[in-house]
Amino acid sequence: MAKKESVTRKEKAKATSLYLKTYPLMVLNLISLIVVISVHHLFLQKTVYEHPYAFLIATILPLLMVVPGAIKGSYRGAIWICFVTLTYFIAGVLNWTQGINWAYGMSETLLALLLFHLALMYARWKGLSELPVKD
After folding, report:
1. Confidence class for position 2, pLDDT limits 50, 70, 90
2. Which domain holds residue 51?
3. Domain contains 135
4. HEC sequence for the chain
5. One Pfam match, by short name (predicted)?
6. What was the pLDDT predicted at 58?
7. Which one of 48, 53, 120, 123 has the lowest number of neighbouring Cβ atoms within 10 Å?
8. How far apart are alpha carbons 115 and 80 in whole angstroms?
9. What separation, in Å, do the N-terminal and C-terminal C-alpha atoms of the chain show?
10. Into how many domains does the chain fold?
């Protein structure tokens, strides 16, 4: 499919409406994923580390790096969220298949999947809303 160079007024209005509705859900889901990972690593994990905060920061650092792009609301930031979220999806699936961490793995997988989908649709609709109007 060829890249669109312009949109109609109706398409632009619809894309603007959709990305404005998707934005708060994307940011809320990103924060939820950070909170779930933090709570698991600090309070629920059975493995004891000498420096648990260093391990936590290393774990959530990729998510923290995309927070400014999410808060700005740029569609490129949303694309980066999609890339980063895939690693958390994989980690969630691996944790889900373990007997002890299945609940954490399930929540991480579902939150990462939802965040990927929200960021993908946000990037699409935001990109369409920024195209010039074809008369």
Report:
1. low
2. 9-128
3. no
4. CCCCCCECHHHHHHHHHHHHHHHHHHHHHHHHHHHHHHHHHHHHCCCCCCCHHHHHHHHHHHHHHHHHHHHHCCHHHHHHHHHHHHHHHHHHHHHHCCCCCHHHHHHHHHHHHHHHHHHHHHHHHHHHHCCCECC
5. DUF2069
6. 94
7. 48
8. 12
9. 22
10. 1
